[in-house]
Structures are given as structure tokens and as C-alpha cells.
């Protein structure tokens, strides 16, 4: 185990690892949901979510986003992301179940979730921070992963720093990012030439109108 990780049992006995990067509050809860539950949730989400292929314009050319996406949440909270404005679909039972489970740990009420479906290693998400203005200062981001394991990397936003940190997010893992994390760190899911299973990730968010 790397010296950047320490183990703490929380009040409710859910074990987590604090990822000790400067100017961050990142907690990793491996296998937060058990594997049978997580397998079932993966299949459900794959079927029931209204997955979309979005396009982003780069130098005037429309490019497909390298993953399928969807946006669910409370009515009235739209979200603009890479120039795409998404209006939320209504919560499904499955999403509400996960939302309630992580809210007790995160101590916030999430009002929306961005869903990503990585079909294979050609899908990923480029370096970015979840720092859109609708998320306010020091956003709380609750990330739950299902299906195939993928690498998730952090790198410092400060170009004079070279600090990087990698972790693997697998079936049922929960990652909670809070505090200054988004102001100081970028994150990504790199594309990979390795054979990987399809993966679904949900990032629960609090949007301010
Ligand atoms: O798939 C992931 O684990 C991260 C997704 C992400 O960073 C995002 O959608 O903002
Ligand atoms: Mn993100």
C-alpha cells in the first residue's frame, strides 16, 4: 500500500481510504456495494438509462464524445458541460437507491447525476475538473462505478507541480471528492489498448440554480 493511503473505519463502519493529496479531500470506499448488487445495478442501468451520443465542436468540426452520457435529476436544474446543455430526466428507482445510500456518507442531498457509459478501451474522459459554476465553490462529487475496472488519475492543475496519483475504480467502488479538490486537481479516465469490460460511472452532484 502506498504511503499516500491510510485506512480509517468511519462511524458507520464503512471502511475508506483517505487519498492524501495536498489541497484535496478525497475518500475512496472500495466495494461500497457488494459485487452481486453491483452486477445487477450495471445491467439495470445499461437497459433503463436513456443513453445519448453527444457531440462537441472542435475547430468547427463535430466530434463524438468518446462515451455515452445521460443526465438525471430533480426537475429544473439544467447543466452545461463542454458547451452541451442537458435537461435532466426524472430519477429512476435504481438511481434513487444509490443516491440515498451515498447521501448518508457524503452528508449532502444530491439533486443530479451525470452518467457515463464507457463501452470499451476507446472510451474515456479527458483531463478536467468538475468546476462548472453551477456546482458552486468546493463541490461535493459522489462517484459510483459499475462493471469493468478502469484507471482513474489525478494530476495537479499547477503546471509547476508534477504530482500525479492513480487509482483503479472497479465494480461497486465509491469515490467521494470534496473541499478544494476540484480547484487544485484534474482527473481523467484514460483510454486504453488493454481489453476492458464495459463500465458505467455515476457522478452525483449538487447543482445551484
Ligand atoms: O468515469 C469516471 O470515473 C469519471 C467521470 C467524470 O469525471 C465526469 O463525468 O466528470
Ligand atoms: Mn469529472
From TrEMBL:
GO BP annotation list: DNA alkylation repair
Gene Ontology MF annotations: catalytic activity, acting on DNA; demethylase activity; dioxygenase activity; hydrolase activity; metal ion binding; oxidoreductase activity, acting on paired donors, with incorporation or reduction of molecular oxygen
Cofactor(s) the protein needs: Fe(2+)
Domain Fe2OG dioxygenase: 109-208
InterPro entries named among the record's database cross-references: AlkB-like (IPR027450), AlkB-like_sf (IPR037151), ALKBH3 (IPR032854), Oxoglu/Fe-dep_dioxygenase_dom (IPR005123)
Cross-referenced PANTHER family: ALPHA-KETOGLUTARATE-DEPENDENT DIOXYGENASE ALKB HOMOLOG 3 (PTHR31212:SF4)
Name of the featured protein: Alkylated DNA repair protein
Species of origin: Dactylococcopsis salina (strain PCC 8305) (Myxobactron salinum)
Amino acid at each position: 500500500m502506498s504511503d499516500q493511503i491510510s485506512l480509517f473505519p468511519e462511524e458507520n463502519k464503512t471502511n475508506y481510504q483517505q487519498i492524501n493529496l495536498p489541497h484535496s479531500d478525497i475518500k475512496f470506499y472500495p466495494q461500497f456495494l457488494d459485487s452481486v448488487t453491483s452486477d445487477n445495478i450495471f445491467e439495470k442501468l445499461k437497459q433503463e438509462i436513456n443513453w445519448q451520443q453527444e457531440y462537441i465542436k472542435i475547430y468547427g468540426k463535430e466530434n463524438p464524445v468518446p462515451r455515452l452520457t445521460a443526465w438525471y435529476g430533480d426537475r429544473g436544474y439544467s447543466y452545461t458541460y463542454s458547451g452541451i446543455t442537458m435537461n435532466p430526466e426524472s430519477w429512476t428507482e435504481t438511481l434513487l437507491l444509490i443516491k440515498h445510500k451515498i447521501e448518508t456518507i457524503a452528508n449532502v442531498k444530491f439533486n443530479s447525476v451525470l452518467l457515463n457509459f464507457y463501452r470499451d478501451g476507446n472510451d474515456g474522459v479527458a483531463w478536467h475538473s468538475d468546476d462548472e459554476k453551477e456546482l458552486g465553490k468546493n463541490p461535493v462529487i459522489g462517484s459510483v462505478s459499475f462493471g469493468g475496472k478502469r484507471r482513474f488519475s489525478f494530476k495537479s492543475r499547477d503546471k509547476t507541480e508534477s504530482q500525479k496519483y492513480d487509482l483503479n475504480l472497479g465494480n461497486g467502488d465509491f469515490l467521494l471528492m470534496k473541499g478544494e479538490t476540484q480547484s487544485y486537481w484534474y482527473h481523467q479516465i484514460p483510454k486504453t489498448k488493454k481489453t476492458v469490460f464495459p463500465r458505467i460511472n455515476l457522478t452525483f452532484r449538487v447543482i445551484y440554480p
